[in-house]
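Working notes for the structural subgroup meeting. M.R. asked for a predicted model of this chain before we commit to crystallization trials. I am recording the input and output together here so anyone reviewing the notebook later can reproduce the run.

Input as submitted:
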Amino acid sequence: MVKLVFSQSSSTLTSCVAAALVFATASVQFSEASEAGGNLPKLMLFSFDGFGWNYLQKLPKSSIPNFHKFIDSGVHVRWIENVFPTVTRTNHMSMVTGLYAESHGIVHNHFYDSALNASVPSPGNLTDSKWVDVGSEPIWVTNSKAGGNRRSGCILWPCADAKIKGILPEKQMPGEWTVTLETFNSTERIDLALKWLTDPSEEVNFVAVYFDQPDEISHQHGPDSEEVATAIRTYDKTLEYLLNQIEEKGLSGKLNVIITADHGQLPVRVENQVNIDSLVEREWFFSQPYLDRPRTMINMWPKQEGSHGWDPRYSINMYPFFIATGPAFKKGVRDAAPFRMVDIYPMMCHILGLEPAPNNGTLDNVRHILATDERSRSLTSYVGVTIGVIVAMLGVVAVVVILWKIRQGRNVSASYKRTFAKAGTWEDQRMQDGMVVLSDEEL
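Returned structure, recorded in token form:
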């Protein structure tokens, strides 16, 4: 019967395992270095103020072909549930933090803060951190904190003009609500955003761009007006320009683009106005009112044909739309299941490979529109290759060790047989020497 003798020493195997672990660590470090070296996922976030979800439904495809080019190349969610109150600053802050108004602190466009005993500046931008730095963390702060050559840019984005957690966007075009499309038009905004995304010295991987229309147009003329339809067709030309520039700058298949809005609007109709005559008893009126003395009217309410601010759960016209395209998104998905405004932040963190700050959003709510993004694909592939190499190395090591042990065992067996000729002595001596003996049947 053939006997194999194995020593309990495993220094060779330990050395090989250590080498495999060193290789795995080096592989991860190489992957991280590659990402920091310019392979970061890129994301552009567009928001059109006051662009209701139903605006796209009212216009024929032939009049807005570029909106539909984006939809065909990516995903379209007919509407998403925004945050109450449905106003600009509140929803733009919810979009980039994943928080509801009571958590991020921007409870309206203009409001009184009892803790500060002051009101939010109106009109004008918010450059004082005391108004916005109340515990929330916008996506540009999350991106900056992650390091690894990550940089963000914001163009006129509401509430991005003040430091939050001591951080401003690395690239910034300030002037929220003080810079309009008349003074800094759509193509100029796109040019600046793409310049930041392709700057070889200080390249950003995230940029947010704000457009102040069609909100004011809808206020003045109503959401169902021809003026609003004209504004939408103008933005379609803006998207055509964006598509051409993405192609020209070699960003096709690399840049993720999200196009959305903060809220929609409802028409203000005379028949829906409240007649106070029916609410107040006649005896509360003066029979002969008079003007005591002329006074200058400091404030007045302009006539409006459209408005917003209502709870979106009771007025679906408050909802905005959502379109996205790029390597992180599925292609050709129309009318995908709706989700919430606060789900956008964790989705953007997922796309950018960031650990999100605490938020009210849920990534699972948007997985149905997400493809496996480029970072996840490359990382999964690299990890798979690394594991395969490690397993192969360990297999080779195991074979070498077994063959070496077999040879050593045969040599030792022959030596012991010659030295201990008496029956039983050889096996007794092996046990005393602390060696393990395996028979053919045991192998």
